[in-house]
Write a structure and sequence with these properties.
This protein has about 210 residues and is mainly beta. It contains 1 helix and 13 strands. It has one helix spanning about 110-115, and strands at about 15-20, 30-40, 45-55, 70-80, 85-90, 120, 125-130, 135-145, 150-160, 170-175, 180-185, 190-195, 200-205. The strands form 2 sheets. A 7-stranded mixed beta sheet has the order 6-7-8-4-1-10-13, covered by helices on one side. A hairpin with a 2-residue loop joins strand 11 and strand 12.
């Protein structure tokens, strides 16, 4: 029933945006999320401009766990041959470990070590690029204060398959448990979808 969160494999253009609340208490319950994708064909490539917007409606409620700052780690999964162009609006915190692990008997998880060895962090942009589940992944922070709205803009390019004879399709996969209040997809300045993203969908612009 799609509960597992398994990353779907497809030959189509692909996008999944996942949001992970890190010490943000119960703030996800009072945050509205929106996602807009503006895409354009550039020769044999598709250039995407993704805008993630979130509004924190907490701050004045009688429940303290709704009034906290919301630090969220965002991961954007795209086709494995995607090329990063740029980002703006993301947070660049300087988090430090709570413990000096070199003085403890903690052991590093071997699977995590292998995963991190394939990652690359860019201190200038604040983006870590991963390889995961057959996808390229852009990871970054979005720290949102109560009563505020924040938007992050990410651009990347996806090479198209030449000679496949297949019409272009865009596969949007939804993170289990997360709905985007509004999801908009535009291609070559034409709007092909606008509405609630509450399920996986394939958009076939014709």
């Amino acid at each position: 029933r799609g509960f597992s969160g398994q990353v779907n494999q497809t030959e189509d253009d692909y996008l999944m945006v996942t949001l992970t609340n890190v010490k943000g208490s119960k703030t996800d319950s009072v945050i509205d999320s929106e996602l807009k994708v503006d895409s354009i064909f550039e020769g044999d490539d598709v250039r995407h401009r993704l805008v993630l917007s979130r509004t924190h409606n907490g701050g004045g409620t009688k429940y303290g766990f709704y009034n906290k700052q919301s630090p969220t780690y965002v991961r954007v999964l795209v086709p494995e041959n995607a090329q990063f162009i740029g980002i703006s609006g993301n947070s660049k915190p300087n988090f430090q470990p709570l413990l000096d692990y070199s003085t403890t008997d903690f052991k590093r998880d071997e699977d995590l070590v292998r995963f991190e060895e394939k990652s690359n962090y860019d201190s200038e942009t604040g983006v870590t690029i991963y390889e995961e589940a057959g996808k390229r992944e852009y990871g970054f922070w979005m720290i949102l204060d109560p009563g505020k709205t924040k938007a992050i803009e990410l651009e990347y390019r996806v090479p198209r398959l030449n000679g496949s004879g297949k019409e272009y399709e865009f596969y949007a996969q939804k993170q289990p448990g997360l709905e985007f209040k509004n999801f908009e997809f535009n291609l070559n300045n034409n709007k092909y979808f606008s509405g609630l993203l509450d399920r996986d969908m394939i958009i076939s612009p014709q």
